Amino acid sequence: MSTPTDAAAAAALSAHEQRTARIEKSLRRRHAAERRFRAFGLAAVIAGLSFVAILFASILSRGLPAFWQATLSVDVYFDPEVIKVSDRPVRGAREAPGAFHERTMAWRTELAMVNWNRLLEDSVIRLKPELEDSRRDVRALFTSSERFRLRDRVIEDPSLIGKTVRMNLLADANVDVWLRGNIDRSLPDSQQQLRARVRELADKLHEEGVIAIRFSRALFTNPDSRSSPASSGLAGAFMGSLFMMLIVIFLSVPVAVASAIYLEEFAPKNRMTDLIEVNINNLAAVPSIVFGLLGAAVFINWIKLPLSAPLVGGLVLSLMTLPTVIIATRAALKAIPPSIRQAALGLGASKVQTVFHHVLPLARPGILTGSIIGVAQALGETAPLLLIGMSAFVANIPSTPLEQSTALPVQIYLWQGNELRNFFEARTSAAIIVLLGLMISLNALAIWLRRKFEVRW
Amino acid sequence: MSNLVLIAVLLALTAVAYQIGLSRSRVLAGGGRGSSRLHSRPGYYGALVALWCALPAFAIFIVWSWIEPLIVRSMLLADFPGVAEMSSHQLDALMRRLHSIATGFVDPATVQPAEAEAAARMQHLQAIGQTAKIGLMAVFAIVGLLYARSRLAPELRARNQVEKVTRIALAVCSGIAILTTVGIVLSMFGEAMRFFSFVSPLDFFFGTKWDPRFSSVGTGAVGSFGLLPLLAGTLLVSAIALLVAVPIGLMTAIYMSEYAPAWFRSFAKPVIEVLAGIPTIVYGVFALLIVGPFFASVGEMIGVQIRATSALTAGFVMGVMIIPFVSSLSDDIITQVPRSLRDGSLGLGATRSETIRKVVLPAALPGIVGAFLLAASRAIGETMIVVLAAGNSPLLHANPLEAVSTVTVSIVNQLTGDTDFASPQSLVAFALGLTLFVITLGLNVVALYIVRKYREQYE
Fold it and tell me: pTM for this one?
């Protein structure tokens, strides 16, 4: 009589086993799905991290070498036989500024007529007298702006004439490219930028240590240059950016903080303030290039401010930064607990006193952080500046915000488009390193300020 | 330069006014402990006097500096020979020449008698103007100061008046945001209308050919300004960007908020957010120098022709740029899903990934959609990456491996370095900008609406 029960029990057992097996199978599947999902998540994070790593690694590896450049270290003799000029004019007591200016100009014209290249050539030929017949090749070693450097030294200090000075002079960009092997050395003559004799000469001088790859300050101290790529630098663009950032700091930040205070602390809740609020949120999402169009139409076409001037760029960037700083300031003000305000009001302070004496000082770190991040963002902005003509080639360092100028990011844009690719690829990356360095230090400052003054309520 | 000096003098006078108000109020209070007799603290009396001193004089300064050059110009040009037939450019040049004659930087031999006379008159008028400006400012500053000082009395509600000025100043500042928007809309609308007087809006919005030609004013030769190829390019690049950014950004946000240990999060999150702070020009150069050639060589390996500058390159790099944007927005939204929903699902035996996929994500979906729309609007308005890496070929096609052009690229191409606002070739930039503005604004309004509506659900 026990068989059916046994069979039933066995059936139940097997059913149970089957169910367990089914559940286990499904659990395995579900756990595998769990692991898969998790792996996807981790892969996404790693992808994000590796993008950062690749970006920085590639820019650093390409850009860092550009801070070192092929340089000729030679003795330059300021030969009075070659430099035949009158004495530097001194302004007479009753001389009109125009007349003095003219005399100075005449003196400078005299200096400009001097054959400075000859001094450069002589400096190498004195080391290698056999090159006397191939002056053209020797001259090709130097980048063309170095003769102006000699001239400027004389303008600065006319007593140099007749003396010998040891100078580090930049080699031509093509010499730099050749010595570093940034151009395929096996290419036939027709595709090489330098003549065969100049290449030989460069190699020989490089072996002897006359030409060496040395750290060059040209990138930091010179403005952009078209005729002499090797000496092109970021100084002009840096000054342009500096002027614009000053305008942003002194125009955008105070206005933004004031309007945030008004909206957060004083504004009555009505349609008007609602409108302003929606407006600011949308303004923050308007593409930057639209601000460039605004600048072109209003500041340049309508008010007739000069093209390419940091003043206009600063105004455009100010408008662009405004919503960012307003939003950050409002967040900082919101984070101050109402108890602070109530305590001040309870002790008889007026609304304005409450805000300016109590709320604002407590919100200062947040406001500062937001402002710095807004300024950093403005520093890296390119597109609107292209529309107000800041992409023009400018070979001077601007000394006022009304002069023509470029900006750091625009300089990067200009350099990446330069035809002398072999040389400017590295230069572009070097400029990016400078820009990123500035931005990272601004952001680090913001983080440091936040850490230092952060208050937890 | 003298304007700066003038402002500095005014500031100094204002400081003096403050001191006068301060000490006067102390005298009124009777010194020592008598300050409780005053309505406001002494500083407010000082500030009131300072405001009365500075504001009217400053207003004079602004108005005068704005109007004076206009008056001088019209007075000079009124009786200068031959002005009637000059264009406005020539008039500007003439004024500049007169100015340099007046400052002595022009060789006297080349100056004509009429010019010399006008320059002398200009110098004379400017001298009068400058004196009058300084005089008027001084009068207003001193009268304001004396008037405010005479009003000082213990019962004067100085604090209320000063605070009123403060509030008005704050309100004016917040009006600037509105002015900016109005400026954007008006300027773009006005210039776009001028463009539509050359090209019919139908041809612009529905044209399939973009070929603006070179600017040639007056010949009447107008190229074709069809928006569609540009719009298609913009959408293609943005779609690729979203295809890259959305999966990576969303999974990053999920992993960070649900799985990652605290130490990992505190390291990885800021590093990924670095991507958001890098200027777009850097991404552009990165795309051009590294990503483009990489894609091209990969294509060569697998036998597909991929151009180095293509929609794929630009879209991919743009996607990398908006990863942190997507991930931080999604992170916010995911952490807003209430704990109880998660606990309920986990308590019923769901695994974590099931909870996320079947409970958290559906609950967060509207917010995440809003985040995607914001990311899309960011991608559509992005300029520098596409300028450098998209290849600039405005043809209507949907092949991501080929070069495209976008709305933003065309704006840059049409307006860079061109100051001539009279030809359709440069005015089209404003029509394009208006289109871009409307699209991104629409996306934003919808996205913010969705995000806000969703937030209210759980509050």
Answer: 0.87
